[in-house]
Amino acid sequence: MMYWKEAWAARLAWMLPLGVFLGLVLVHSDLPGVYMDAVNPDFLAAQWLHRGHNPGAGIPSKIFPILGSFYHGLQNAYLGLPFFAVTGFSVTSLRLEQAVFGLILLAALYQLTRRLTGAHGLALATGIGLATELAFTASFRTQFYIVLGGAAWLVVSMLLALPAEGGSWIVRRRVFWSGVFFGLASYGYFVLAFFAPAMAILVACWIPRRDWGRWVAGAVVGVSPFLLGFLSLLAKKHGVEPTLEFVRGMLGQLKPFDASGASGNNLQYAWALLGLATSDAANEAMIFGQGLPGAWGAMKAWWLVAAVAGLVAIGIVLVCRRQPQATMMILPGLMPISFVAVASLFGHRLWAHHFSVLLPFVYLLPALLAAKLAELARLPARPVPMAVVVALALAVIGGNLVQQARFHEWLAKTGGRGRSSDALTTLALEARGVPANVAYLFPEWGFFTSFAFLTGNRVRYSVDIEPATIAKLEKDGITEFRLVYWNAADEGRYRQALQANGIQSLEARTFPSREGQPVFHWLRGGLGGHP
Questions:
Q1: What distance in Å separates the CA atoms of residue 423 and residue 351, rounded to the nearest whole number?
Q2: What is the DSSP letter of 488?
Q3: In the prediction, which pLDDT does 319 show?
Q4: Which end of the chain is less crowded, N or C, counting CB atoms within 10 A of the terminal residue's CB?
Q5: How distant, in Å, are the alpha carbons of 194, 228, 393, 411 from that of 220?
């Protein structure tokens, strides 16, 4: 009877990190406000469910929408179709939909850690550590979420690269599916492809040579939506030249490789981004306009560096001793090296949200290092003594929860600041009840995606104030306009532009933050004596 209970406890332990993570996602789930990129491409689900004349986003397609941009796909939008059809459109439903990928990542990370270390306790500590990591949970409140959505498939790919065990869900064509999920990770967000050099080494060591071709074939299938998306764009634009013109217009002055290679300056910049991503300072800057002081978060980048250095050093020693098979567990230590090396080629074209994909390794690699050191030291019984695991896990989780408490205190006090203020939610919720003759005008970046999502795409809006646009809206029965903008200093020029389009009786309004600071403004006016 006791064995049966222990077996079931071990089987269900992977669910505990998922529950912890979901609980932290739901705390103040309606905060902060939804920044424009924090709901792109999810807002497209609202436009697909409730079609209208509102402007959208994404790459044009001849068949069906495939690419959200030239650097990410539409997996969140397609997940959102059934999800939002059931839950409706709210900030909380958005958090939950985006958190699905966090749940997948945590489940795969638990199983990967367990398989590599052979220790349920160490896998549980790793899972709960990441589940309570503020840099991880807060990423599902900002634009960082889309990068971690791709990271979920990366961890699944690594797990499937290991041989199947008894009770595995995927046994047949396991190698092929490992490749598919790696390609899908790159479709989720292009920076996941930066792991390819290390993943190639991992595949070469974990998978028999006769199956390498299957893994490559799977990776091609997984990333094929990118190719399909470009072919569909080519068909939509009716030729190569119009397509190239569109691509040039979309990319503008990005010049992603104009960064002089992996120079010392670029490596220094990559280190700074790693610190911003793993400490949560980047998410806090997005939400509050500043990082919250604290040494705990700043330690995380050093954890990762120490774990990578330790695993690489052990690997070198084992190879010198001609024990290559003993290096199987430590190969994931190459993944952050691969990512940083490739990312350095892009230099300042990247920012901290791209480096958030390294968060799972902040917890995975120390666990692998601890297990390997225990194995080399020939500690008795379990791979890592349970008392040590529990003590370290409690210390880490305690530090994480203290950091979480401070973050949520600021969240409740401010509601988010700047372009992450919950005043954006107020704008959309008020708009849900407006008459059909009202349209919102968003000539500035930062408004329309969250507005389209939170109103279920049922309220008319436009993203410019050109005379032709105003004339078209008037033809469709719009008589009242509400132009929304960020800075009060721009009121004069917007007032003049509206009046030039025949919109009169203009009234100004300011939307404040919870702290009483102005966040954005609108000018409201009408045509033909409206209102």
A1: 26
A2: G
A3: 84
A4: N
A5: 15, 12, 39, 42
pLDDT band with cut points at 50, 70 and 90 for residue 391: confident
| CB 365, CB 333: distance < 8 Å | yes
Separation CA 365–CA 330 (nearest Å): 8
Please, which residues have CB within 8 angstroms of residue 352's CB and are 6 or more apart in sequence?
273, 276, 277, 281, 282
Q: Is 500 exposed, middle or buried, given 0-12, 13-18 or 19+ CB atoms closer than 10 A? A: exposed
Per-residue pLDDT at 366 exceeds 80: yes
3-state SS of 499-523 is: HHCCCEEEEEEEEECCCCCEEEEEE
Could you tell me which residues come within 8 angstroms of residue 158 by beta carbon, excluding any fewer than 6 positions away?
Answer: 108, 112, 178, 199, 202, 332
Q: Is the pLDDT of residue 259 over 70?
A: no
438-441 vs 480-485, strand pairing mode: parallel
- Across the beta sheet with 480-485, the strand order is 460-462, 438-441, 480-485, 518-526, 504-512
Domains present along the chain, CATH in parentheses: 14-30+90-255+264-414 (no CATH), 418-527 (3.40.190)
Residue 126: which residues within 8 A CB-CB, separation 6 or more? Answer: 109, 110, 113, 363, 364, 367
Residues with Cβ within 8 Å of 477's Cβ and at least 6 positions away in sequence, in order, are: 436, 437
Instruction: Report phi then psi at 168, rounded to 5.
Output: -65, 140
- 11 has a pLDDT exceeding 90: no
- Within its chain, how far is the Cα of 199 from the centroid? 21
Token readout for 500 is 């030039």
For residue 167, what pLDDT band results from cuts at 50, 70 and 90?
Answer: low
**How much is the mean pLDDT over the chain?**
92
Cβ 135 vs Cβ 279: under 8 Å: yes
Instruction: Compute, in degrees rounded to 10, the torsion defined by CA atoms 234, 235, 241, 246.
Output: -60
In order of 318, 325, 326, 370, 373, the CA distances from 321 in angstroms are 5, 11, 10, 20, 16
Give the residue among 355, 346, 347, 313 at the shortest CA–CA distance from 330. Answer: 313
Query: Which residues share a beta bridge with 510?
Result: 521
CB 513 within 8 A of CB 417: yes
Question: Beta strand pairing status for 518-526 and 480-485?
Answer: antiparallel
φ/ψ of residue 438, rounded to 5? -105, 135
User: Tell me, what's the pLDDT at 3?
Assistant: 45
